[in-house]
């Protein structure tokens, strides 16, 4: 796992969560190969953190649970990994995320569903079965049990549905822009506000990796759909 391009505190945090959760690289890969025969308890709350991480403006602590309506913020040196229900979130530095202030009607047998607001910053997420939307000031990404990386920039939103299905829409006008179905970062997009000449454009894969996705899925005893040979990202 090459972390050289990442923020220094995020590099430390990622290696920390691998070690603290028992997912050192070789063990994590072994867990992935073992699948259902190597189930570990799912532990809710903050799994690992580095730097300034706050929940509802107060300093966060390890294993602290995050409840619907809670707001998680990170400083310029902050990052964290959080488990909520069957979903896992890797929040980057300089981010503000409000989790599930609004519920959606849950389907039978589904995990927590509702609205997540990414007001600033970036977040890599993996989901169990759910009906969730991640909104930014510019875009809304509808999730139906998948993985995605979203970055809220001042005049655009970056969205990569890493695998699964996502519905991409504008936040201001609700305009449906595209529905993507991917298996390995096939359709990353830049999404722009209504005033822009174009509302949506193709984008490269940036700032998130398959190794991170394997780590996050392992925390809830799941595996990504791609194999070990698909490790370019």
Question: Could you characterize the architecture of this molecule?
Answer:
With 233 residues, the protein is mostly beta strands. It has a single domain (8-218), classed as Jelly Rolls (Sandwich), CATH 2.60.120. Helix content is 14%, strand content 38%. It has three helices and 15 strands. A five-stranded mixed barrel has the order 8-9-10-12-11. A hairpin with a 2-residue loop joins strand 5 and strand 6 (87-91). The radius of gyration is 17 Å and the shape is globular.
**Percentage of residues in DSSP E strands:** 35-45%
Report how far apart the termini are.
Answer: 10 Å
Computed over alpha carbons, the radius of gyration is 17 Å
What name does CATH use for the topology? Jelly Rolls
Number of helices: 3
What structural class is derived from the secondary structure elements? mainly beta
Poorly predicted parts = 1-6, 20-34
Q: Mind telling me the CATH class?
A: Mainly Beta
Q: Helicity range of the residues? A: 10-25%
Question: Which series of helices and strands comes N to C?
Answer: HHEEEEEEEEEEEEEEEH
């Amino acid at each position: 796992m090459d972390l050289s391009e990442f923020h220094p505190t995020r590099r430390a945090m990622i290696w920390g969560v691998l070690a603290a959760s028992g997912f050192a690289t070789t063990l994590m890969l072994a867990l992935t190969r073992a699948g259902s025969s190597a189930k570990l308890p799912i532990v809710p709350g903050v799994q690992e953190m580095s730097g300034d991480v706050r929940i509802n403006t107060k300093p966060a602590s390890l294993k602290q649970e995050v409840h619907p309506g809670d707001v998680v913020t990170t400083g310029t040196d902050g990052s964290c990994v959080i488990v909520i229900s069957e979903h896992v979130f890797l929040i980057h530095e300089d981010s503000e995320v409000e989790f599930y202030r609004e519920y959606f009607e849950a389907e039978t047998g589904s995990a927590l569903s509702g609205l997540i607001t990414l007001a600033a910053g970036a977040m890599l997420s993996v989901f169990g079965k759910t009906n969730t939307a991640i909104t930014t000031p510019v875009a809304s990404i509808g999730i139906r049990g998948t993985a995605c990386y979203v970055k809220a920039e001042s005049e655009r939103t970056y969205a990569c549905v890493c695998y699964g299905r996502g519905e991409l829409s504008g936040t201001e006008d609700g305009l449906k822009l595209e529905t993507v179905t991917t298996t390995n970062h096939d359709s990353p997009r830049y999404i722009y506000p209504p005033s822009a000449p174009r509302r949506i454009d193709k984008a490269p894969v940036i700032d998130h990796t398959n190794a991170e996705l394997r780590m996050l899925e392992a925390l809830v005893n799941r595996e990504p759909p791609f194999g070990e040979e698909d490790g370019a990202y």
